[in-house]
Amino acid sequence: MMRLREKRALITGGTSGIGLAIASLFQAEGARVAVTGREAAGLVRARERLGNEALVLESDAGKVAALPALMRHVQEQFGGLDVLVLNAGVSGALPIAQVSE
After folding, report:
1. Phi/psi at 82 (5° precision)
2. Which residues are within 8 A (CB) of 4 and not within 5 positions of it... i.e. 6 or more apart?
3. CA separation for the pair 28, 38 (Å, rounded)
4. Residues 50-84 pLDDT 10s
5. pLDDT tens-digit series, residues 14-37
6. Among the listed residues 93, 66, 52, the one whose alpha carbon sits nearest the alpha carbon of residue 12
7. Over the chain, what HEC string results?
């Protein structure tokens, strides 16, 4: 059973760890996936694991000014989104009130 057949998903931080695992599972369930990451090694790893069907994009989710261009690109390639997984992030020891974009 392919529960995500014909769904389009964007996973930020999807080139490693939990994000890459989510992208792989979504693909296995029939979704077209786009993933973002900012490290070259992660982008290569994601392309190898997800194949040519996936859209693997260099993008830093912490740079808010870059998000409109990212979303335009995904819109052009996928025609819209059904699922958005905001997975990108770096953990730190700051109180939430001190965390910026």
Report:
1. -110, -30
2. 26, 29, 30, 31, 83
3. 24
4. 999 999 999 998 888 999 999 999 999 999 999 99
5. 999 999 999 999 999 999 999 999
6. 66
7. CCCCCCCEEEEECCCCHHHHHHHHHHHHCCCEEEEEECCHHHHHHHHHHHCCCCEEEECCCCCHHHHHHHHHHHHHHHCCCCEEEECCCCCCCCCHHHCCC
